[in-house]
């Protein structure tokens, strides 16, 4: 068993661990061997960090691609399968449900069995269920296949965070999480464009065929570049029940759940923006679909810029400071959006500017919460990743349909829902995470780690 030395950053530890680090899940340093491949021969330190992070980031992009690529084909799907638009939209709900369930199952399971086998199995499953979606003869089978596709896609998302936590520590960890967050910000922008390009030359079934091809490429990349980062001697030895008990114990840790719920609340604001922005810009402000794509891409650049700023500042500022700043920027952008609509009315420039500010704040929140939460739960990185990702998409799935329930003649519903989510994030940050106490700061990241 490998344990990092106790430090003040390991406060609010798990039961039975005085510093939250004396358990089988503790990682080796980023410059020393951290595990083996499936045959027990490969050394993770032999894999270049840039290559490993690139593959893991690509795995996290699979779910956003699978969510948004086929959206432009909804009308054609309904016509081809002889079903309603509501039934077609249910296929997306099924995928999101699979994504939540998959992360909650695969994450803690990986703390017992290791990462590589589940990652390979999940990627193979994604390929197979993508093919099943492509050939589904009716909406019922398509919905079932989409749910299973979501479960399989969850493996890449949840295990990417766990592998990074196994493999890296100190200032390296938040920098690499920033890359994952940036990919998550870009993928939803690229997905509809890629899907539209496929639909311009083929049918909606070809979109799932393309997803299957992407899955095959990722499978080859995983086989060649992602070793086992959790060797047998550092796995939970008390059976599957013990791994899920570890996840239950994390649910009772105030600070850890504070970071998880901050991420979930800010994700609810992001999903609200994604689901409502096309209506706001195209219907209320009358922009073309092309201009809307540019606006959406511009706001995604805000997430990218924030990720770059976050990476530059992780060695200079505490992660809790960056998290607090990110939540403050999200709150400021959402509040400005509401006040602008109420005081001035609907303005294209004002809506775009306030949403850009909000997206920039999100780009700070995502890597900060991931880094802090995973650092607090190094004894069970898979379970921690499961809760981070599962609640993130659960809150997002609940929030995204709310915009359409409150009227279609104003952008105020979207703005208010985003503001409520931002206020909730700020309250959770202050009440549970309590960033001034400095929990979860990785050693070597910011002044506290020097």
Derived from helix and strand composition plus strand pairing, the structural class reads mainly alpha
Q: What percent of residues adopt helix (DSSP H or I)?
A: over 70%
Could you give me the name of the CATH homologous superfamily?
MFS general substrate transporter like domains
CATH class: Mainly Alpha
What is the gyration radius calculated from CA atoms?
21 Å
Characteristics:
mainly alpha; Growth Hormone, Chain: A; 450 residues; 0% strand; globular
Could you please describe the fold and organization of this structure?
With about 450 residues, the protein is mainly α. The chain contains 14 helices and no strands. The chain has helices at about 50-70, 75-80, 85-115, 115-135, 140-165, 170-200, 205-225, 240-250, 255-285, 290-315, 320-345, 350-375, 380-400, 410-435. The chain is globular and about 60 Å long. The protein starts with about 50 loop residues before the first helix and ends in a 17-residue tail after the last helix. This is Multidrug effflux MFS transporter.
A few lines on this structure:
With 450 residues, the protein is mainly alpha-helical. The chain has one domain: MFS general substrate transporter like domains (Growth Hormone, Chain: A), CATH 1.20.1250.
